[in-house]
Amino acid sequence: MSRPPMETTLTPETEMVSKTEPSTFGYIAVHNSSVSNVPEGCVAVSIHNLSNRYPDDLISLDTFLMLASIHQGVIVPIFFLICFSTNIINMVVFYKHGLQERINLCVLCLAVADIMHLLGAFLTQAENPTSIIVKTFAPETTTLGPLGKTIADYKLVGLYGFNWASQLITVIVVCERCYCVVRPLKSQTVLSTKNMAGIIVTVCTPVVAGYFVVATRWDIVCTFDSSTGSIVFVPTASKFYLQNRQLVDILNGTVYGFAVPGFCMTVVTVLTIITVVKLKQMAKWREATSSAGALSAKEVALTRMLVGTSILFISCAIPVFTVFTTILFVPGLTLNGPYHSTFSVMVKVCEQTNFINSSFNFFVYYKFGTKFRETVRKMFHCGRSREPPKQTTVCQTEMSATTRT
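and the corresponding structure tokens:
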């Protein structure tokens, strides 16, 4: 429901807040302490409607609000269920295959990072559809729910950092496979499983911790608009962000928006091409020489399966990298810019693309991984082979004849 614009003068502090982090609902909240009858725990505000303030936006505010509701109430829960269930299966399967092999350890860590990424998305966005249901039965509710309060207090938005940890683990997996194909004889002795675990922890820890720093930029404020009687929980810029704005903007925009995705996409693309070309050369060489000394059939099958995950990663990374690069170089694409709704929709499309990358590795493993597929079938007791009745009868006849003899 759209709200009428209200004429209110911005104070220096609220103007800074509105330029840095306005409401995700498409409105700029301005404090007004002179309003009476404010519900307990809320702040009186006047509201500026961004749809009236920026009429040139390519996507209307009503369209954005509808898409945001679908994203938060439908898409995120569905992807969370798919991601959680499939990655749990991935973890069990690769654990069964043995963590003494470093590639199994890498793929298991990838599954853990993907689960944490979708868990962060689910927790940070589940409050909005939940609050709609709660307010339907309890309209007098004015305080932030326990889930939203926990997220705000502990800055659980930082769990999104596992998205970039997942990308870096994908880079490690691709590097490992490429080296195994290019140097098959040396690959088994150069790097141990223990060292691989140390590399994963060393690379992923600062990336996740850094995004928890980015998460401190938001504070959740309960706002009350006296003109409409509506209550909205608005994310606003925190004091930490206002004091460390340059650092947080570099981390959020340059590092996580451009540098890490660009690095991961480039490395995965180049090494995947090298791996595929080398595999084709090895296949021709094996056919010509009938030699099996270069790379075992098991390693070839595993490499092809992981090449499939690399292609999935590249397909999902290209649109995300394109969107964030566009945001960096188009000044109007900001939360408080003239293309506010367009910016917000683009960000949500990027989130959904990342969700696909975190949720669909299982299907790639199952399609291209023979051993993975067999293990999954055994886990769920499907696809058991049965002997033909005629063959069974012959066996029984032979056994009976042997017994008589």
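(Above: one complete record from the training split.) Confidence is low (pLDDT under 50) at residues 1-35, 385-405.
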